[in-house]
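Sat 14:20. Reprocessing the chain from the morning session after the first attempt stalled halfway. Input below, unchanged.
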Amino acid sequence: MRTLLLLLVSFLMLGPPTEACAQRVKITYHAAEAEPESAEENAAHAEGRAMDINEVNKMPVRLAVDPSAPQAKREAMRERLREIEASARDNREVELFISPLGGFHRDTKTRNISHEATKEEMDAHWDHIHMTIIK
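Finished this time. Tokens:
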């Protein structure tokens, strides 16, 4: 299952460039360190279906919402996060995606997006991206 998850993330991050994601990104990932994740997210991590991404292009994800970060770095991270989210939305294997800027939940049966991430979820993911794939 972990191999499937890594393949999915590799495809999302390094797949063929599209208009929405014209630049390849490099990711660094590990478990969340600062905020507790939901029971659902923790279960997905335990099953090997979820991962947390803490850095994109060697820059911390937290730069997207850090008011003390230089504006150019903050905007660059925001752009990368929007590109990654667009790729995740297009991939019907992604069940859950949450970043500091947004995210969604996908119905596992219909594979349609059932609802958007809440402000509380985005706040809990202020320093990383969480992504879960469907079983």
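Residues 14-23, 28-34 have pLDDT under 50 and may be disordered.
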